[in-house]
Specification:
mainly alpha, globular
């Protein structure tokens, strides 16, 4: 699919930029540079989520099978728990009932923020899995 290809290209470009930014010694990075790196990492991860929405296979299964190193196993177990929490949050969002617009708005905002936070946690764990795998 063309969209997946375009997104893949953007993610590759983002990785190139990230590698350039990360070359500066961590202890000498400014707060702004660290935040820029984090924002770029998050943007890249969310583009990966969009690719998944368009049907591209997620890399997590391949990472899980890459090795049986203890560090990967622990990260996988945590990732699986986070996936379960994400499923519960989605079930709450789908099954809540209220006619109060203000309450619905606040519920929507809080559910969306909780979901986004756990999704980011899952994506950061994915990065950690890759780091462990690369260093194994």
């Amino acid at each position: 699919m063309e969209v997946i290809k375009e997104l893949s290209g953007i993610r590759v470009d983002s990785s190139t930029i990230l590698n350039t930014l990360r070359k500066q010694e961590e202890s000498k990075r400014s707060r702004g540079l660290s935040l820029a790196i984090t924002a770029l990492e998050k943007g890249r991860m969310y583009l990966g989520e969009v690719q998944g929405n368009f049907g591209q296979e997620f890399p997590y299964e391949a990472t899980k099978k890459a090795t049986t190193a203890e560090g990967i196993q622990k990260a996988v177990e945590v990732s699986d728990k986070v996936d379960q929490i994400l499923e519960v949050i989605m079930n709450i969002a789908e099954n809540r009932k209220t006619d109060d617009l203000k309450a619905k708005f606040l519920q929507d905002a809080n559910i969306a923020e909780a979901y986004r936070s756990y999704k980011e946690c899952r994506m950061w764990l994915g990065i950690r899995l890759g780091e462990i795998k690369d260093n194994a």
